[in-house]
Amino acid sequence: MGFKIGAAIITEQREMRKEFLKSVRIPVMKKVGFIYDDVFLRHETPRWHPECKERLIAIIDTLKSSEIWDKLIHIKPRKAEFNEIEAVHKHEYIERIKKTEPGYIDPDTYLSENSLEAALYAAGAVIEAIDRCKNKEIERAFCAIRPPGHHAEAGKAMGFCIFNNVAVGARYAQKRGYKKIFIIDFDVHHGNGTQHMFDEDDSVFYFSTHEYPHYPGTGSNSERGKDKGEGYTYNVPLNSGSGNKDYLHIYQDMLPDIVRRFTPDIIIVSAGYDIRTEDHLSGIRVSDEGIRGIVKSILSCAAVPVIFALEGGYDLQALGKSVLLTIKEMLA
Ligand SMILES: [Zn+2]
């Protein structure tokens, strides 16, 4: 009799404990991959060129001196295959890049001896991130890469970009079974290359906020996609001087609905930190608070893998700090 009562009490206590544990939300850190290789430092640009290897050095130094370095899953990129690049770029363009001698290939874009190698690894980093997400090794990834990609058109290099890393990644993701891709581009410049590559495509949504009018000149809100892709491009041009408030309105009040309506299988972000107040390449004035808010909103839009690929960001200190803030949000 006494034993039965004792057993009943133990069972009851066990049940209470289970209920209690269910009610306490134990924070579980997200599995975040950090994709980087020193090969990106071998893409050389002339002295005083804003898109310099010191950008990545600043990011690595900032992350290493923070508590998050050891919380990341460190991953080496693989090299993209030429056929994977050809999913978005013209064959003749790739062949031309292969044969080009070091020098400027566009008024802003410099090709050095090892730039082709670095560019293949930059696109390969996004590919690697997709593979790791697919294998469930990670849930989110940050690709610390250069050269950047979003200005590169199908047949030409442009604005520091050789291959369009995010676009190559989007097509690769589809090959791996992620059917619907949502690209978010918060770089201060409009991602003309990415938009044009998916203009007529209803399986890849392109959403961009950018200073306007500004380089490269595209990105008005009347550009909404063409034919089958009409309605799958969404541009939010912003005046010089726009800041945190404007960005938080767009990212918190507008973006989530657009993403939810599209129901993507994966989100790829063109992460350009030239929106920072400190950055001299724009008149947009976003601070720490803005970066945190933008990233938090992106991450809360959908329960799907999210891959960030570095685009711009030319103030070294602001860049390092912004990437740190981004990754802190990604881990939460
Ligand atoms: Zn930019």
Q: What CATH architecture label applies?
A: 3-Layer(aba) Sandwich
Which band does the percent of strand residues land in? 5-15%
Looking at the structure, the CATH topology is Arginase, Chain A
Give the CA-CA distance, first to last residue: 50 Å
Major sheet summary line: 8 strands, parallel
| Neighbour order of strands in the largest sheet | 2-1-5-10-9-6-7-8
Kindly provide the radius of gyration, computed on alpha-carbon positions and rounded to a whole number of angstroms.
22 Å
Uncertain spans: none
By CATH reckoning, the class would read Alpha Beta
What is the number of helices? 10
The CATH superfamily is Histone deacetylase domain
Order of helices and strands: HEHEHHEEHEHEHEEHEHEH
Average pLDDT for all residues: 95
**3D shape:** globular
What helical percentage do the residues reach? 25-40%
Count up the domains: 1
Could you say which structural class the secondary elements and strand pairing correspond to? alpha/beta
Q: What compounds sit in this structure?
A: zinc ion
Q: What is the total tally of β strands?
A: 10
Architecture blueprint of SSEs:
Elements: H1 2-23, E1 32-35, H2 54-64, E2 73-75, H3 82-85, H4 91-99, E3 103-104, E4 110-111, H5 115-134, E5 140-143, H6 165-175, E6 181-185, H7 192-197, E7 204-211, E8 233-238, H8 244-262, E9 266-271, H9 288-300, E10 306-310, H10 316-331
Parallel strand pairs: 1-2, 1-5, 5-10, 6-7, 6-9, 7-8, 9-10
Antiparallel strand pairs: 3-4
Helix pairs in contact: 2-10, 5-6, 8-9, 9-10
Could you explain the architecture of this structure?
- The protein has 332 residues and is of the alpha/beta class.
- It has a single domain (29-331), classed as Arginase, Chain A.
- Helices cover 39% and strands 14% of the residues.
- The chain has ten helices and ten strands.
- The chain has helices at residues 2-23, 54-64, 82-85, 91-99, 115-134, 165-175, 192-197, 244-262, 288-300, 316-331; strands at 32-35, 73-75, 103-104, 110-111, 140-143, 181-185, 204-211, 233-238, 266-271, 306-310.
- The strands form two sheets. It has an eight-stranded parallel sheet with strand order 2-1-5-10-9-6-7-8, with helices on both faces. A two-stranded antiparallel sheet has the order 3-4.
- A hairpin with a 5-residue loop joins strand 3 and strand 4.
- The mean pLDDT is 95.
- It binds zinc ion.
- Zinc ion binds at residues 187-189, 272, 274, 311-312.
